[in-house]
Amino acid sequence: MAGKPKLYYSKGRGRMESIRWLLAAAGVEFEEQFIETREDLQKLQKDGSLLFQQVPLVEIDGMKMVQSRAILSYIAAKYNLYGKDLKERAWIDMYVEGTTDLMGMIMILPFQPADQKENNLALITERAKTRYFPVYEKALKDHGHDYLVGNKLSWADIHVLEAILMTEECKPDILSTFPQLQAFKGRISNVPTIKKFLQPGSQRKPPPDEKYVAAVKKIFNF
Q: What domains are defined for the chain?
């Protein structure tokens, strides 16, 4: 029997959080090795674990996988969360890529200068309301299914829920004009494995605070 996947990253969300979400949604238990100092990172770089000298790193099925997209695609395919054919996979990819763009804007917000945050927060809200969320709202309304692709839980649903919750941390009423997404949020949040991940005490990480931002800057030297 193969061991649990092992995740190497700093003790926060960043680019590892979507990987945690996907594994948790698939019902897969995983271990975490936190990178807490620059020396921890340099050790991984020196021992050849990091193909491109960057984390996230996930040890799974005898591989040391890097690059978020490659890791996520592998997990989605392995645990049957990647559609039934190439067309469904293409739709999942499109939804995921769009969502990733929105999440990237939110992810870097805590690391930006204070005088830029207000404008960037307004931009995140505007993009969510006019570019990203209308796409999912229309898809759910048009096909009338519970899920975004193939009427079956997929990586797209998990990723969009993560993005919704991240955006709500920036603007709590962001879904006020999106009834389909409000219902979708309720449904996907109640998938048993996801519901468990959303409970206190899970391996889900909290929003980054000043202490975490300072630690990350020190570890990654920026």
A: 6-79+198-220 (3.40.30.10), 86-190 (1.20.1050.10)
